[in-house]
Amino acid sequence: MSALFNFLAAGPVLVLFLLIGIGMAFGHIKVKGVNLGAAAVLFIAIALSAWGEVYGIHIRVPHEIGIFGLAIFTFAIGIYSGPNFFNTLRTSGGPILVMVVALGTGAAIAFGVGRYIFDLSAAEFAGVFAGATNNTPALAAAGKSSGDPANATVGYSISYLWGVIGMLIYVSLALRLAKGDKDKPTPIVNRTIRIERTDEPVLEQYHELVSGRVSFSRLRRGETGPIFRPGMFDKLRHNDLLTIVGPEADIDLITERLGHDSSLSLTIDRQWLDFRRITVSNPKLAGRKLGELNLNDEFGAMVSRVRRGDIDVVANSRLRLQLGDRVRVVAPRAKMDALSAYFGDSSRGLTSLNPVALGIGMAVGILIGELPIFTPTGATFSIGSAAGTLIVGLIFGRLGRVGPMVTALPYTTCMVLSEFGLLIFLAQAGTNAGGQIANAFEGGVWWKMAILGFLITTAVGGILFAGMRMVFKMGGTRLSGAIGGTQTQPAVLAFANERTGADPRVALGYAMVYPVAMVLKILTAQLLGAL
């Protein structure tokens, strides 16, 4: 075995891809319908590295490669969370407060139990806190402020594994409750209704009734007239047929106010108006609002809905297009080919890498992550490349375009980049932790560190789960992402994504708390190490 381990130790790139391949092979194995997914790469890497240490051989994936993977991962998460993140942030004060209380409780346990019950040094209990919350920058801060990085690393290594497993258990509990989520996106449907009103109401008032969550795609006067696209100021007459696109509950409300469901469907009659799904691949349209395109003036057309990833959303004038979006266009039949050419309608739009946005965004994010931040004690810390690239990714995703530069990436590209970056990071983190665990058990206080780490992770996860679920009624799907974001642990996020089919609410919950959690953990570990 020594010869094999020496061979692997000399080839870190080979080790990286072996761990990704073998880890994911195990990750796809289901036990009672549950699989580890990408988290299996972490555990396989820990096992391989620890096994090598038995022979005195250090099998590692270089730290710089891990940072590269993590930065790619968080940037991609930011890009596809950005369009909804800032709207969500306005109502996220309560969940963020729960996260602060949870981490504060974990720090109090680290200090109180670590010092007064287990008689651990500041470096040891600060390192345990960093490991129990799975935060490597916090470990660096604890080692620096305590002046004893070796013992801080031991505490980190002992508590790290339960930090992952414990939070995976909480995520599993959250996802078991996800069937009753009230924040689940409502399926988009279309329905033709017959108008019973005789007072000729204006369409605009019913658009405002449901806060613009529907669109009106077709109107026919009577049963035999031409079908045309209605305007917001068109009046509805008795026996008109109107097609509405939107959430079913909103359409029910409008139907109740205007008339009743019709047995006729205007979407079937394509003599006058046709519809088509078109892929947005024209880079000139990326990042632009639908209302800026003037489709009605140019083509007599409208977009009734937009499919991003696996989710349909009702189109509105404020929605920004991204490369890879699939728009459902309603227009005169003669205009369809021209519309396809206008939007691009090429599969390249699904997978465009957009290297300009990727390169500039990553560079700016890494620079932000490395900027020194001064504390009241005069010490400095940095938030790290992961937090920096996440912040820039969120901003780029929200903007969509800055002048001629498209700042967003297609949804499919983001999914590929985030998964690949995550797998790279997990392989590196696992080999690093596995190598340290073997040395950690040589000390006589390892069991105290293990118990302390168990208490911290369990308390933090329990407060997160109870507070966000019971106090703020957060849905289980978003809660699973928030748990991963608070833990700043990509493996937890990967597990939640695997279980939900990459539901966007998971990434939204993760991004909502991650930057604050990262800064708070670094400051807390620095304070604990100095006590």
TrEMBL record:
Q: Where in the cell is it found?
A: Cell membrane
Q: Which UniProt keywords apply?
A: Cell membrane, Membrane, Transmembrane, Transmembrane helix, Transport
The cross-references to Pfam families, in alphabetical order and at most eight, read:
Asp-Al_Ex, TrkA_C
GO MF, one annotated term = monoatomic cation transmembrane transporter activity
Q: Which residues form the RCK C-terminal domain?
A: 261-345
Q: For this UniProt entry, which segments traverse the membrane?
A: 6-26, 38-59, 65-83, 95-118, 154-175, 356-373, 379-396, 408-429, 449-472, 507-528
InterPro entries recorded: AAE_transporter, RCK_C, RCK_C_sf, YidE_YbjL
Q: Name one GO cellular component term.
A: plasma membrane
Under the heading Gene3D superfamilies, the entry gives: Regulator of K+ conductance, C-terminal domain
Q: Which PROSITE patterns match?
A: RCK_C
Is the keyword Ion transport assigned to this protein?
A: no
Single GO biological process annotation from the record: potassium ion transport
The UniProt entry lists the main location of this chain as: membrane
- Mode of membrane association: Multi-pass membrane protein
State the similarity comment: Belongs to the AAE transporter (TC 2.A.81) family.
Protein name stated in the entry: Transporter
Native organism is Boudabousia marimammalium
